[in-house]
Amino acid sequence: MDWALLAIQFLNGLQLGTMLFLMSAGLTLVLGIMNFVNLAHGAFYMLGAYIAATAYRASGSFWLAGMVAVPATFLIGVAVDRFCLRRLYDRDHLAQVLGTFGLLMFFNELVRVIWGPAAIFAAVPTSLESAVELLPGMPFPLYRLVILLVGLLTGVVLYLVIAHTRLGMRVRAGASDRVMTASMGLNVTLLSTFVFGAGAALAGLAGYMASPMVAVQSGMGDPILIMTLVVIVIGGIGSIRGALLASLLVGITDTLGRVYLPVMLGAAFTPAVSNALSPAITSMLTYLIMAAILAFRPQGLLAARTG
Amino acid sequence: MLTLLNGMGWVALLCLGAWAPAAADEPLKIGFVSTFSGNAGVLGQHMYDGFMLGVDHAGGKLGGLATDILKLDDQFKPDVGLKLTRELVEREKANFIVGFVFSNVLLAAAKPALDSHTFIISGNAGPADFAGARCSPYFFSASYQNDFNDEGAGIYYTNKGYKRVYLLAPNYVTGRDALAGFKRTYKGEIAGELYTKLDQVDYSAELTQLRAARPDAAYVFFPGGFGINFIKQFYQAGLRSEIPVLSKATVDMTNLPAQGDAAVGSKEVTHWNWDLDNPANRRFVGDFVKKYNYTPSIFSESSYDVAQLIDSAVRDVKGNLSDKDALRKALETAQIQSPRGSFRFNSNHFPIHANYVIEAVKKSDGTLTLVTEQKLRDEAGDSFVSQCAMK
Question: Is residue B174 part of a domain?
Fold first, then answer.
């Protein structure tokens, strides 16, 4: 076993995990606190990436692109909430799934109309293009380290805001008992809109951070939305800490599984068999974790204390 | 939304069928079935634009007949493709069905056409089945057999003297076929072989393995959006200066603008490139850029040849579309001025043509382009022709 290689792969998994966390934090907030199933979350990720790529191209500054993309997705989230989703709050989850899935398709078509069907260009800023030699002979892209830090920092900030500020207290109160909180004189509708916008902004942040690494194209949010849903089920719906733990767990399992399963199976079977088997098992790996969680701990790893 | 639009398309198609005039002066009817919606819709558009330029070059009348083209979207769905070909055969009585980006759609959709002796000329998909065991007198490919470029890649790397090559592709049938095709002709050692998940957007783990294996070179197949993700992340991992990478359908004219500088130095195996120096190609590329304002891709070129093939064959039989045997022979022996240079059909109705290695380079004005590095093979066929007993 090559330990340096394993360490780098572990770091790769951690980085994928933080990316998933940025997505799942927003989704778990909306689902846990507002009891609202939001499949349009993937669309905010896509919009964040498109807006960031366009702003980066126009301004030449990656940081400015982020300063545009994140508030823009916040505002889009607020607008979507006010004009479309508010009507769905009191409906059952099926209506919410249908409504937000419709929005997802709407946004996928909208970006095709605005930016065209082909993927658009987005690059890593030159200042972050280099690689850091963490271990001898094992360079790690600096940009991925930045994502790792941004993700972890976001987690800490979110935790502090929700657990230790007045705003966080109100959000938690609204989540535990909507009616009671409203009767205490708090504008719960406004609070919900704010939470929804914040969730969208987090997805926009994820899209902005991912845009230099992935194809910025219509529907880019769909695969990551599925992973995100898996993460929040594993972590416990509504729990930020759960989302962080589950993101890292899924990121690391997925990464290590992709690399080491073929090796392990290769030792047990002929190359033809292991080559056929390992991608199939890797694809199932995260879903197997989810199934196990649903069977033995349906509330998730760290169930939200509020909801 | 998509389904609604498609529904409207269907209504339009049904109406066309109902209102079609009785066969007095019979027009040439062509069904163009390709993927026009979703992210792969770009490919369908590249194909259609190439085809329509071919129609223009024939004076708007393929083979001298009034030409009626039905543009239909298969939505990248095999069942939709099948429905469309059935409709084209039974209701529209189409003379030719052309297009087809994806092999899985073509494999599902071809039967009603081939059973009813309606010609299919594929503008991209070239599955091994139709080149070998299931070859049909009514099926032609104007593009290339799917494994053609992979086999070319194996030859290229063997010639280069690379001893150990690392292979990467997404885990689905075309990805597996691509790497199998490479291994058919590559003589060296395989340093490693990894298949990625189809919903995967992050390749950090695979790239780390690739680097750790220290191969002489890598051969990869990541079509469409996969290719944008892979090439960007490959570059970001700092591998560009360490490991030469060769690919097919990964660094092409549809992906290059989104890959940007990350693609510079990447090599690709192909059967055609826009810069090939022959009169037919200069005319094709020149007129294409003038008409559509973008550089044509292999998708456009193949479909341009489809139009030329129909034009040549229909002219040859003097517009008599009912004599299928004569039409088939005319297609088999068609002499066209293909932008590839040489083009003729093998006994399995797949092309015999040249094979090139091209490279992504940055021009002095900062834009990116693909430049032909070398001609790899001249007049080459595919590996499945021996399995085809053309009846």
Answer: yes
